[in-house]
UniProtKB/TrEMBL annotation:
PANTHER family: METHYLTRANSFERASE TYPE 11 (PTHR45128), S-ADENOSYLMETHIONINE-DEPENDENT METHYLTRANSFERASE RV2258C (PTHR45128:SF1). SUPFAM superfamilies: S-adenosyl-L-methionine-dependent methyltransferases, Winged helix' DNA-binding domain. InterPro entries: Methyltranfer_dom, SAM-binding_MTase, SAM-dependent_MTases_sf, WH-like_DNA-bd_sf, WH_DNA-bd_sf, WHD_Rv2258c. It comes from the Eukaryota. Residues 166-271 form the Methyltransferase domain. This is Methyltransferase domain-containing protein. Pfam families: Methyltransf_31, WHD_Rv2258c. Residues 19-83 form the S-adenosylmethionine-dependent methyltransferase Rv2258c-like winged HTH domain.
Amino acid sequence: MADDSFCDVEKMVNDGLHSMVLAIGYKVGIVTVIIDSVEPCTAEEISNKANLNKRYVEEWLICMTAKGVVKIDDGKYYFPNKKQISEAAFVSTMLPIFAECFPDLEKVMKNKTENKGYPFPQKALVWEGQYKELSSFHDVTWLEDNVKPVIKSYFKDNKTNAATFNILDFGCGYGKLAFSLAKTYSNSLVWGVDIDAAAIDAGRNKAQKNSCLNVFFEKIVDGNMPDVWKEKFDFIIMSDVLHDLPDPNTIMANFRTVLKPGGYVIAFDPPIYTDHKKNIGYNDAIDFMPYSVFTCLPNSMSEKPAIGHGIGWGYEDKLKYIESQGFQVLAIDGEDVKFPKWRIVFQQSV
């Protein structure tokens, strides 16, 4: 039976090859030179500004011009859409990181007897931190749309208008979300926790440098949090973390301990369908599943009990899991929680 959804595999592979070319152009500075130039430039001008070998620059320009990424007019080169290409070029730099994962991924995929994986490569963690800084993800506008309605609902349900509350950013990475929360809710206290020591150090240094007195960073081990945090937090936020956890049961148990009675957990996670057929042509599945194959799923199987959720963990199964851990999923502003969405809000069942 013919399948109209079948993609052009040859084009997909060709696009991947060109993405690698775009990535090296970003890494060596060609992309930045073209973006920063007010007027189109010759190959020689680009090579001089980027301090690169002219012949390699010419070959890169020929490749990108043939693909339509770079435009040429009277022997001078330019980007037709600088902002779009700048963002796409940065994303393409994840491909060499994927390539470095190949030997480890091949090894664990061939292990049929048990779930094995590997932790997030440090380069991938740094890339994610840089991506969030460059994008609108986790900025003040994003909070306005995605977090503020939940906090408003919380205080409405608890019949209080407290100006001061405690927020835990679980899996904070390099801290963009934590700093945005601290800025938006300046009378409240924000804690960011992560297992990555480099990210925690970066967060602490930034807080000290910018005199941010209401945001703190703590490194945690195995998801365990300080005993003094019992019933400390009004809100726990985890963004793009839930599917990565090798031992989510332990994390959920810790959440039940550190949440105040009635407190909310706000989880942001790629909303992939449990029914794989529904993911055909579905943009979130198309955009995010490659990251899971190389980093998210291996991390979720990097240590015992190696649950192995990854981004492919279906939204519907995710809701069932949350409820199995003693929580109830909440509908904010009357939203229909049955259909996949990025934000899942839940609190302990009464």
